[in-house]
Amino acid sequence: MFFLSNYLFGIFCIHIIWFYFFITGTLIHQNNNNDKDTKIVDVAITSTSGIAITGFVLLLLGFSRQLNIYSFILWLVIESLIFKFIKLQNPFSRYFWQLKISNFFKMFDIPATIIYLIFLIIAVPAVLPATLWDSISYHLAYAVDWANAGRIYVDEFLRYPYYANNFVLIYSLMFILNLGQYCHFITWLSGLLSCLAIYGFISSKRTNLFASKNLLNTDKGKNTFLKIVAFIITFCVIASPIFLRFLNVGYIDIPLGLFIFIPIICAYFSIDKIGRSYEFHTVLNSAFCIGMKISNIVYLPIFVLCVRYACLRKRRKFLYISILCLLMLALSSPWYIRNYIETGDPIPPVINLLLGKEDPIFSVEDHTAVMSELKEQKGFWFLILLPFHFFIDPLSKSFREYGITSSILLLYLPLASLIIFSISKQVRKKIKKNFLFINICLIYLIFIWIGISYLGRYFLHVLPVYVCYLGLCIYNIAEYFRTIVIKVDVGTIKKNQKQLLIKIFTIIFLLALIIPSPSSLAYYKYLINSNYIYGPKALKNYDYFLSQNLIGYSSAKTIINLMKANETENYRVLTIRFENLAYYFRKEDVISIGDWFGPARYKDIIDRVNKSDFDLYITDFNIGSILINKQEALNVFGQDSYDSFVEQIEHAGFIEINSPEKQTSIYLKAPIQR
Questions:
Q1: Quick one: CA dihedral 435, 438, 443, 446, positive or negative?
Q2: Pure H helices in 424-550
Q3: Is the pTM of this model over 0.90?
């Protein structure tokens, strides 16, 4: 009952929030759009723009030290006034809400409704408390930290303290609204918007890539076939284990894929010069994406291209386009400006160290550790056969995922298409420019993925664009062959039969693209057992679930309770190989330190221990308690250093207390309440 009630309440809350994002996104509509062909895409674009607008508002509130519920309510009032006096729409009238609700629900045709209902089913794991590593090491830890503090500040003891975090602010909003336990539904919403946008994009009439309208007919059967293609191709995303694994957790990879995808389809639609103008949507979402992660500056060339093409519909002049690009840079710059003020260097650490420059945040050792973690060095032939390796052996160190669909085997199709497009004048005449645009964007994204890190999780950044590209290619190739085959005399086979055969073959090919990696079956079983069978039974309450499923949680709660009882919350907790508990400490306004990187890196601790001056380290960092993962600590320190470490802890006046977990040791300096 506890699980079901929380699931239903979470679903209710995220739909209210989704509708708020949708309404907020309509602030930047330049004109009404009655084109039924793009209703689904419009809702996805508008909702995503609403997330971006909200994120920028929270960014302003965070840097002005007003990140709280009262300031957010004030923003809602300001938003209402913008609608009334600038947009000339009265948000206090019944007609306003009837129109918004009508526009919102018009997108749902039968396939879109089925996709939505499937997402309601796969949302079940979103109810479970956060236990996955990065989400509780820093993403959710930042979010709750800022919500508690009411401002954005640099917590130097969290991992990557000088990164950009636009989307993390949306998680902060959930904590401000006292809905922090439902943060996973925000990631889920991003996945849903991505899949609705994919379906809407492929099922629209803009799917026709041929410059000549005579090549394709527009009969009713063709439109039905197009929706079938769009529906099936969407499952190349939904069925992917990497997508399902990160759909209901506090990671930003699926949201990142959404915010890369939206500017590209905005520009793609604008090239046709029909329908709504998407230039402001393009600028806003591009800027938000760059501010989601500091390394996202690498996507800037793509986004500049998107802004350029988004202005084609109204034939904007160069000066106007330049102003929009400058606006995009201005909106994406706050985190970089903050980093320049704080460290004197806005350039990401990885880029600094790759260029041989000294970095104020990362040491050379940090950089080496990060890069070796992100990317396994491989040769030329591995890269050539990368799609096959990813599909056959996704669990390898190179990808570290449970699986992906066979659609990955066509990874180099965009490059092949570009080569054909370059050498064939006849093809260039037949194909529209928007296909060349999405082709170039996708090739760039793929090269960035392979160049920086080909971890499977990072392919989620590329996946929506990649799947849409496949849908475009497969549908248009099928239609092109259909026009040829119809003219060919094949004995007694009639025209309608030939058309049907082409469609059946296309559908079979599309279904083959959904086939998951061989290792995926084990993951699906794990997903069902852990999240649909075990999860509801185990979730009697959040503390009980976490004590059973997150090593160190019970020990962390013990430390927090003792620190509160002894009024020593101003002390810090040193964690050894429990950096992933940062979120649960910061939920209680307790600062935990200890990581592979940063000022409390394990290497520095070991050096202090080996020099026998760990007591000075305790004083320098104001440590009041220590939590150790015993087996992992042995791996980090080695037996001799670990024994010396424990000895110096006790010599510094720390007392070991009974731990609720066998795997952990707890030391407390403050007086113990018996």
A1: negative
A2: 425-430, 433-452, 463-487, 495-513, 520-527, 535-538, 542-549
A3: yes
